[in-house]
Amino acid sequence: MTLVLLIIQIILAFCLILIVLLQRTGDEGWSGLTSGSSGSGLMSKRSTANFFTRTTTVLAALFMINSIVLANVVPKKNQSTIIKELEKDLEAEKEHSKTKHPHKHKNPSIPLAE
User: Fold this and answer.
1) How many C-beta atoms surround the C-beta of residue 12 within 10 A?
2) What is the mean pLDDT of residues 53-70?
3) d(Cα 79, Cα 88) in Å, to the nearest integer?
4) 12 with 26: CB under 8 angstroms?
5) How far is Cα 68 from Cα 5, in angstroms, rounded to an integer?
């Protein structure tokens, strides 16, 4: 499953890059399908711009969703977190201090100044 999702992620990334690079401002963009200002081509400038905008939005949404799914599906090899490491270090310090100074934390027999 992970391999399939990674392949989908690569395809989505490639398509997203391609569709963004095809978008250009003015008369430069997608000149093969539009025939200037006459509108007699396959697609008008406005419909081409709408197509690219919608396609970019859909591809970006799919890319983000696939990224989130991949982050949750990929097995985590190292389950250790910083907080768990700090807790281990704190416990180790407590054990070390107990063995080094076993009577360090006893209450004093003489009351301190009040």
Assistant:
1) 19
2) 94
3) 14
4) no
5) 11
What does the alpha-carbon distance between residue 92 and residue 11 come to, in Å, rounded to a whole number?
48
Q: How far is CA 8 from CA 20, 35, 36, 89, 94, in A?
A: 18, 34, 36, 41, 49
Q: What is the pTM of this model?
A: 0.54
pLDDT in tens, 63-108: 999 999 998 887 766 666 778 788 888 888 888 777 765 555 556 5
- Close Cβ partners of 20 (under 8 Å, ≥ 6 residues apart): 56
Token duo for residue 102: 């076993």
**Which tokens in the block code for residue 20?**
């963004």
33-58 average pLDDT score:
72
* Cβ neighbours, 10 Å, residue 108: 6
107, two tokens: 């209450």
